[in-house]
Design a protein that fits this description.
Length: 351
């Protein structure tokens, strides 16, 4: 089976025009039960202003209803990594955060979920398909909070990212079979527009998607649209080899400089913290030395008192011996009672 590469906007649009496919695609990626879906592709004229090149892009916006309520799904396909596109993503998100949607005749601010299909690799992450999600966590108990707040959900969002260049391997689960359609292999042309789809599928909706892509590949009008989009991207890639790539390089350098400044700030803060800890250790050491000095002084005082008590006891013994000798006790009896020898008596002139 020959199918069109679905990472082109013109091709992806043909898939998303089928409500059953759109519901299957979003529900499979987000793992949500979708009750109803309204999908509106927005055709935008996107300009690389520095090189005066305009192309048309399709940004897909789906309003879905799940058992938990309504939400908005934004789907972006990005074939190459440009720093200027990050700002476009952010501005596009900002527009949808500002915009209210009419739900059942009432203006509402819906929670947003984003799906990014990337034609380039994120070097830090090997996964072909992953979810960047938010978790509510109590900062006091560190426990995960199982409930959701509509206020928080309206101000933050989860993202689902597909890296098409990393898709490969076995295709058994429903998600794996869906991703197999976006696999960037088995191309039959140099442009990467048409490819052989060699996989067997057991999921009915994936088979339906494959047949739509097969039809697009065989349609001359659709093929011309894809060729036009491919040529536009080729022109942009060629032109951004000059001014655009220089801008990207400058923005990368600015980002790197910002990161270096942040790292330098962190190192300075760490150094300041270490100096403060060193100061505290010095103060603690000084305090310990002062306490040691006080203990030494106390010990000296106790020794002095002990010496004074010993001198007083000795003086009391001398006085007692002198009194006994006056009363006529013999030298031998005095020495026995006082537990002294004759040298002691001579030392203090008692005999």
């Amino acid at each position: 089976m020959i199918i069109a590469n679905p990472i082109y906007d013109a091709v992806f649009k043909q898939l998303m025009q089928n409500e059953r496919i759109a519901k299957f695609f979003i529900s499979t990626l987000t793992e949500q039960e979708i009750q109803t879906i309204q999908l509106k592709p927005n055709k935008l004229a996107y300009t690389y202003e520095l090189i005066a090149t305009r192309i048309f892009r399709l940004d897909f916006v789906a309003t879905i209803k799940t058992p938990q309520g309504y939400q908005k799904i934004l789907i972006e396909i990005q074939k190459a990594f440009k720093y200027i596109d990050i700002m476009r993503f952010r501005n596009y998100l900002a527009e949808h955060y500002k915009k209210q949607d009419e739900i059942e005749g009432e203006e509402k601010t819906l929670p947003i979920t984003t799906i990014y299909i990337l034609g380039f690799d994120l070097p830090e992450i090997d996964s072909a398909c992953f979810r960047a999600e938010r978790v509510y966590r109590d900062l006091l108990t560190r426990e995960v909070i199982p409930k959701k707040s509509s206020f928080v959900e309206s101000l933050t969002h989860d993202s689902y990212i597909v890296q098409v260049n990393r898709i490969g391997g076995r295709y058994r689960s429903k998600l794996e079979q869906l991703l197999s359609l976006f696999e960037q292999r088995y191309f039959i042309d140099e442009k990467g527009i048409m490819k052989e789809y060699p996989h067997e599928v057991s999921v009915e909706e994936v088979g339906l998607m494959a047949r739509v892509l097969e039809h697009v590949a065989a349609d001359r009008v659709q093929r011309q649209l894809i060729e036009t989009e491919w040529e536009a991207w080729r022109s942009i890639d060629a032109l951004t080899g000059g001014v655009g790539s220089k801008l990207d390089r400058l923005m990368r350098e600015l980002e790197q400089e910002k990161q270096r400044a942040e790292q330098e700030k962190q190192r300075a803060e760490q150094k300041e913290k270490e100096l403060e800890q060193e100061k505290q250790r010095a103060e603690q050491k000084e305090k310990e030395l002062e306490q040691e000095k006080q203990r030494a002084e106390q010990k000296e005082k106790e020794l002095q008192q002990e010496k004074q008590r010993a001198e007083q006891l000795e003086q009391d013994k001398i006085n007692m011996i002198r009194e006994m000798l006056k009363q006529g006790f013999s030298k031998e009896v005095v020495m026995q009672i006082a537990k002294v020898d004759e040298s002691f008596l001579k030392k203090y002139n008692l005999i």
